[in-house]
Design goal:
heterodimer, A: 160 residues, alpha+beta, Alpha-Beta Plaits, four-stranded antiparallel beta sheet, B: alpha+beta, 2 domains, 5 helices
Chain lengths: 160, 153
């Protein structure tokens, strides 16, 4: 479990690193600890895997990547790892998850593709689907239409 | 228009942002510009909303619990329902997608009971059944890739 200071640090990070000369000092001042303490804790977060990536988080749509497709497949449990490995060979696949299949939505393998336009993404999906094995699975492509909300997580129950 | 410096900042600092007391000065030294150039470039792309933030990607369920969720909503009701869902601070992503199951959002809460409570409240307030798709396994989780920024205005 994260101690209180680590939780508060993540709350601060979710707001975005301050854009100023000494951003870790500024966060330290907000939390009443030293700059060194903040930096050390962030290093520990990275080592322990609490933070997967620390850096610039871009808004794809604003940068011209307007087509965003969530692709889903219905894959037998025993084949799911193999198919996921296959999907990850494509550089345009940015996320790949297993999720539970429900009676109303019977898909268990999800991946995301971000592209400049719909046609590019459709071509990329066709590339994925050129594999004979993957063609046997029920599949859907859900392009995004409107983005109603996109922001960093707000953590609750944490003092900030 | 994005400057060359801004393009470099967008593409090359999605990972391993410097953890030194003066990260922006370190970046400036790497790129042969001044710290002030880097600060201004970041402020500009931040104000123009080309970036969400400089921050951390935290894998699902590292802190608290989260789930992807979806609702099937008639087109005429979509804006109302989306806005009701956006009002929850526990919701951080909310997208319309091309499907009968057309509204997809992510809920992050501090524990399973809180998550359950948020989703039940969303169901009560919107009048629609929420399907839950919590993560079972992440094969790859890193939304960073080389951006082609040639024509970004």
């Amino acid at each position: 479990m994260l101690d209180n200071l680590n939780q508060q640090l993540l709350v601060q990070l979710a707001k975005g690193l301050p854009i100023c000369s000494r951003p870790y000092l500024e966060i330290g001042e907000r939390l009443g600890v030293s700059e060194t303490e903040i930096i050390e804790r962030l290093k520990q977060f990275q080592t322990s895997g609490i933070i997967k990536r620390f850096g610039v988080i871009v808004k794809h749509a604003a940068l011209g990547y307007r087509a965003n497709a969530m692709c889903v497949w219905q894959v037998p449990e025993t084949e799911i790892d193999e198919i996921a490995e296959y999907l990850l060979e494509f550089s345009f696949v940015t996320l790949c998850y297993q999720r539970p299949a429900l009676p109303e939505w019977n898909y268990n393998l999800y991946c995301m593709i971000h592209g400049k336009d719909r046609n590019t993404v459709l071509t990329q999906i066709a590339q994925i689907n050129s594999h004979p094995q993957i063609q046997t699975f029920t599949h859907q492509v859900l392009f995004s239409r409107r983005c109603f909300k996109q922001r960093g997580a707000v953590y609750h129950g944490f003092s900030s | 228009m994005l400057t060359d410096l801004q393009k470099e900042l967008l593409n090359n600092f999605q990972h391993d942002f410097p953890l030194s007391p003066t990260p922006y000065a370190d970046i400036a030294a790497q790129l042969n510009v001044t710290e002030n150039d880097v600060l201004q470039a970041f402020q500009d792309i931040n104000e123009k909303k080309f970036i969400s933030r400089i921050g951390a990607i935290i894998p699902p369920n590292q802190i608290g619990v989260s789930t992807l969720a979806a609702i099937s909503v008639p087109e005429t009701e979509l804006e109302r329902v989306a806005s009701q869902i956006n009002d929850f601070s526990e919701v951080n992503h909310n997208y319309e997608r091309e499907n009968v199951l057309n509204l997809w959002f992510v809920v992050i809460a501090n524990d399973a009971a809180h998550l359950d409570d948020v989703i039940r409240t969303i169901e009560l307030e919107t009048g629609y059944n929420v399907l839950r798709f919590p993560l079972e396994k992440a094969f790859f989780i890193d939304l960073s890739f080389r951006l082609d920024l040639a024509n970004v205005g």
